[in-house]
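Sequence in, structure out.
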Amino acid sequence: MLVRTARPEEIDAMLACDAYAQAHPERGDAVRAAVGQGHCLVAMRAGHVAGYALTHDDFFGYGFVSLVVVDSGQQRRGVGLRLLAAAEAACQTGKLFTSTNQSNSAAARLTISTRETRSWCT
């Protein structure tokens, strides 16, 4: 698996693996903006989009991972962890924050797994 900065020509494939984006066009607007600013990481596996993450560095002067999406067929295969590790490596601020809804148990487990395996500032 390769994780790198997303390219504009990958936006359609990223949105295709995002069930929420199918029903909410504003998600596509956010993804296009993040890609245009270089604030989107994409995970590629076997030449296909496995997931993506949106980041920014204006969360009270710190980095923030605002969204992590993993294709349903790629979940629980390390894609989310790799995206968060890449976000950490790319972070140019002293801290990197994440947030998740309490009801999103998969994301909460990912955040906990990340804290246990990496030295995160969240």
